[in-house]
Structure formats: C-alpha cells, structure tokens
Specification:
Blueprint (H helix, E strand, L loop, with lengths): L4 H19 L10 H10 L3 H10 L29 H5 L2
Helix pairs in contact: 1-2, 1-3, 2-3
Length: 92
C-alpha cells in the first residue's frame, strides 16, 4: 500500500498543475506559452509540475494582465445580499 503513495502524489501534482496551467491567462505565464507548459507538465511526471510551479506560474504579487470584465449595469444594481446592503448594515 505504501508503495503507491509516491505515484498517487505525482499524479495529483500533475493534475493540479495541468488545471492551473489551463486556468492561467497566457499573458501572465512566464518564459513559455501555455501549450508548451501543458506538454512539459504532462510528459515529465515530477520535473514538469515542479518546473511549472517554480518557473511558469505567475508570481503572487503581480496583478493580472487584464482587469476583470464588468458589465455596464453593475454600478446601478442593488446589493445582492443583506451583508452587501449599506442601508441594512447601518441599521445593525
């Protein structure tokens, strides 16, 4: 049973890094394009995910390359929940 743990950890790390690479915007990736990073992570079992985490993933402190998309009517909408409603919070 214990001999399967390294293989399961390697598989879990690979799956995590593939999903993370797919979800990362290509403009925020470092050194290589998205397709190259996914191929490296998939083809090199332990080295690929570690390389992605150290060399391809965007740094934590950097802002995203594109601002989040906002709909034009977002400013005029009422708050969705009571904790977002300033009038409700004043009454507490």
């Amino acid at each position: 049973m214990l001999r399967y743990v390294p293989a399961l950890l390697s598989l879990a790390l690979t799956v995590y890094c593939v999903i993370d690479a797919f979800q990362t915007d290509e403009a925020d990736m470092r050194t290589l394009p998205k397709v190259a990073w996914v191929m490296i992570v998939v083809l090199l079992p332990v080295v690929g995910p570690v390389a992605w985490l150290l060399g391809g993933r965007p740094r934590r402190g950097t802002p995203p390359s594109r601002p989040p998309q906002r709909r034009p009517d977002d400013r005029n909408r009422r708050p969705r929940g009571p904790d977002d409603d300033p009038d409700f919070l004043k009454g507490i």
